[in-house]
Design brief:
The structure is a single chain. The chain is mostly helical. The protein has one domain. Helices cover 86% and strands 0% of the residues. The chain contains 5 helices and no strands.
């Protein structure tokens, strides 16, 4: 049981750190990120709302106040990282590794959350 909790908290912490780093980058380099989003075919106006959603998702996962919100946060992070991986693969910039790593962290975190609850 202790090993499961350690795996859960390490993967969850790393995943949340990755999302926080991403959100802070969106706030600090908004214009640069907007140009990248436009290049990938996504609208530029989505950058700040996406950064806010990432922060709210981190809060939902770490506080565990609402199971429904936590599940939506995991789902949102999953779709965000899949779309990021595809966008980076399409752009050919080699930055898809972070998104794929995030997907792995998310899946492991979610899997071990079920183990420590049961």
């Amino acid at each position: 049981m202790k090993t499961n909790k350690i795996i859960y908290w390490v993967t969850t912490g790393l995943m949340c750190a990755l999302m926080l780093m991403s959100a802070s980058m969106y706030f600090m380099n908004t214009e640069e990120i907007q140009k990248a989003f436009l290049g990938w075919g996504y609208p530029a106006y989505i950058v700040i709302p996406l950064a806010i959603a990432k922060i709210l998702g981190i809060v939902a996962i770490l506080t565990k106040k609402s199971t429904l919100l936590k599940e939506w946060a995991y789902a949102g992070f999953f779709f965000d990282m899949v779309l990021a991986a595809v966008a980076h693969l399409d752009a050919g910039d080699g930055q898809y590794i972070g998104a794929i790593g995030g997907i792995v962290l998310l899946v492991v975190s979610r899997f071990y959350e079920n183990k420590i609850i049961a």
